[in-house]
Design a protein that fits this description.
The protein has about 475 residues and is an alpha/beta fold. It has 19 helices and ten strands. About 40% of the residues lie in helices and about 10% in strands. The structure holds iron/sulfur cluster (SF4) (2 copies).
C-alpha cells in the first residue's frame, strides 16, 4: 500500500440480525450470480439445465431480482439511501425468498460471505421499519400467538395423539418435542416416533404447554416474537432436566438447535441439552441393535434433504470481531465457518438403507446442494403459485432420476409433496415442463422428459415405524 494513503479502518462485525453488519458482504459481492447454481462439480448441467439451480426463487422468477445477486444491489441502494425501505417492489422481492440457504453454501464456495444472515437481517429491517411482513404472515402470526400453533387449533388438543395406548413417562431423560404438523395434521408421524422409541424401550416425556417453535415467525423477520418463544421454550426444557430433545420436524430441529442459540447469542453446545432429529436418533438405535427394520419395501426411493435438517442444521457458534480491510478482509479472530457440508445427511440415508428392499437413488441436487422443496419460509402463505411451481420442479426431478417414491423427513415438506403429486397425477406436470423448456432451452428441445411414475411420498419416520415389528 502507498505510504501516503490512509490505511482503511478495520470494520467491526458481529454475526447477528442487524443489517448494518453486512455492509461488507454487500460491497464485496462480485455480482457473479453463482449463488443461484448448485455445485457444478456434482450437478451435471449441460443437458439438465433446469436441475442446476439451487435458488428456487430464481428458478421460479428467472430474474436476478429474485435471488441473492440482485437483492444485494437493493441492499446497497438501501444503505446509500437511493431506495426507500417502504418501496413495495422491494417488499415483494424480499418475501419471495425462502431463507433456504442454497445461495449461502454456493457463495461460500468462493467468498465465504454471510449471505443467509444478510437475507434474514433484511427481513428484520423491513419488520422494524413497519413495512414487513406480508399481510398473510401477519394473519398467521396472530393465529400462532392466539392458539400456540400453526393451524389455529385448540392448544389442549396438541398432545391428544398420545392418548391411545401410547406410554408417555412423567419423567425421562428424553423429551419428544412434536411440531405443529405432527401434533395436529399428521398424527401418524407423532405415533410413529412413539412406536420407534417404544420398540427400543426408550422412555420419553412430553412438555406441558408446548407452543409452536416460531419457525414461520423467524423466516418472515418477526425476531422479537422468536426471542420471546426461544427464551420460554429453552427455560421450560431446562426445568424438565432432560438430557436430549428429539423432534420429527426439521424446522423445530433447526429452531431448537441453531436459531434459538443464534437469536439469544449463545452456542448450541451451551444449550444444556442435545437436540436430535428422530432420524439421527433412530440411526443410532439401528446401529446399536436396539431396533431392526424387518419389513421389506422393494421400492426405488429418492430422499429429499429438508433444508432445516441439512445445510441449515450446523451448530451455532457466536462470533464477534473485525474484518481487517488492510489484510484482505480477514476475520480476526479467525472463526469457524458454517458452509452446510456438516448437516444431517447420512443418518436419514442410513435409516433408508437399513430397510430391506429399498433401492436408494439420488436426485441431481442432493446433500448441501439440494434445492428447497418450496416449503421453506413464508412463501407458501404469501405466494402459493410460486411455491407450487417450485415443488412441482422438485417432484419432476425425482421422477427424472427414476424414483417411484419420494421420502422426506419433515411433515411440512410431506404436505407440499403430497399436493404436488396430486397435481402431477392429474397432468399438471406437462404445463411446468413446457414452461421450463421455453424458459431455458427453447420450446422445441427435449429435456429427457419421461412418463410420470412417482407413486408415493412418505415421511421417513412413518416408513421406518412400519418397517419395524
Ligand atoms: S453473493 Fe456471492 S455468489 Fe452471489 S453474486 Fe455475490 S459474490 Fe457471487
Ligand atoms: S435463501 Fe434460498 S430462496 Fe433465498 S435467495 Fe438464497 S437460495 Fe434463493
Amino acid at each position: 500500500m502507498n505510504e501516503m494513503q490512509p490505511k482503511p479502518k478495520p470494520v467491526t462485525f458481529k454475526l447477528d440480525l442487524d443489517l448494518k453488519n453486512y455492509l461488507w458482504e454487500a460491497k464485496t459481492c462480485t455480482g457473479c450470480a453463482m449463488c443461484k447454481y448448485g455445485d457444478w462439480i456434482y450437478v451435471p448441467s449441460a443437458t439438465e439445465y433446469d436441475f442446476s439451480w439451487i435458488c428456487p426463487e430464481w428458478e421460479w422468477g428467472v430474474m436476478d431480482q429474485y435471488g441473492t445477486a440482485g437483492r444485494i444491489k437493493n441492499i446497497l441502494a438501501l444503505f446509500s439511501g437511493d431506495l426507500p425501505v417502504d418501496n413495495p417492489t422491494l417488499k415483494e422481492i424480499v418475501y419471495r425468498c425462502h431463507l433456504c440457504g442454497g445461495c449461502e453454501v454456493s457463495c461460500k464456495r468462493n467468498l465465504d460471505l454471510e449471505i443467509l444472515m444478510m437475507h434474514e437481517a433484511l427481513m428484520v429491517q423491513l419488520v422494524n421499519a413497519g413495512v414487513g411482513p406480508m399481510a398473510e404472515h401477519k394473519i398467521l402470526a396472530e393465529r400462532i400467538h392466539r392458539t400456540g400453533n400453526y393451524f389455529g387449533q385448540a392448544a389442549k388438543e396438541r398432545n391428544s395423539w398420545a392418548s391411545e395406548g401410547i406410554d408417555v413417562a412423567q419423567k425421562a431423560d428424553l423429551l419428544y418435542f412434536p411440531g405443529c404438523y405432527a401434533s395436529y395434521k399428521y398424527n401418524s408421524i407423532a405415533k410413529s416416533v412413539a412406536k420407534i422409541l417404544a420398540a427400543a424401550k426408550i422412555p420419553f416425556m412430553l412438555m406441558d404447554g408446548q407452543v409452536c417453535c416460531g419457525y414461520k415467525l423467524f423466516t418472515v423477520g418477526l425476531i422479537d416474537d422468536v426471542v420471546a418463544v426461544a427464551q420460554k421454550t429453552i427455560k421450560k426444557i431446562k426445568d424438565l432436566g432432560v438430557k436430549q430433545v428429539v423432534t420429527e420436524c426439521a424446522d423445530c430441529y433447526r429452531m431448537l438447535k441453531v436459531e434459538y442459540p443464534k437469536v439469544l447469542n449463545i452456542a448450541t453446545m451451551d444449550l444444556g441439552f442435545e437436540v436430535l432429529h428422530i432420524t439421527e436418533y433412530a440411526d443410532r438405535l439401528i446401529k446399536d441393535g436396539a431396533i431392526k427394520p424387518e419389513k421389506e419395501f422393494r421400492e426405488k426411493i429418492t430422499y429429499h434433504d429438508p433444508c432445516g435438517l441439512g445445510r441449515l442444521s450446523e451448530p451455532w457458534i457466536p462470533w464477534e470481531g473485525i474484518r481487517d480491510a488492510d489484510d484482505w478482509g480477514k476475520l480476526k479472530p479467525a472463526r469457524e465457518y458454517r458452509r452446510g457440508a456438516n448437516g444431517c445427511y447420512e443418518p436419514p440415508r442410513d435409516v433408508l438403507r437399513s430397510i430391506p428392499g429399498v433401492e436408494l437413488i439420488e436426485m441431481r441436487r442432493h446433500h448441501h446442494n439440494a434445492v428447497c422443496s418450496g416449503s421453506c419460509g413464508g412463501v407458501r402463505e404469501a405466494f402459493p403459485e410460486q411455491q407450487a411451481f417450485e415443488t412441482d420442479v422438485r417432484v419432476r426431478e425425482a421422477n427424472y432420476v427414476g424414483a417411484e417414491t419420494i421420502v422426506t423427513a419433515n411433515p411440512r415438506t410431506l404436505e407440499v409433496f403430497e399436493e404436488s403429486l396430486s397435481r402431477m397425477s392429474a397432468g399438471g406436470m406437462t404445463k411446468n415442463i413446457q414452461e421450463i423448456r421455453e424458459r431455458f432451452v427453447g420450446a422445441d428441445k427435449s429435456l429427457g422428459v419421461t412418463a410420470f411414475h412417482i407413486k408415493r411420498v412418505y415421511d421417513l419416520t412413518n416408513l421406518l415405524a412400519s418397517a419395524i415389528r
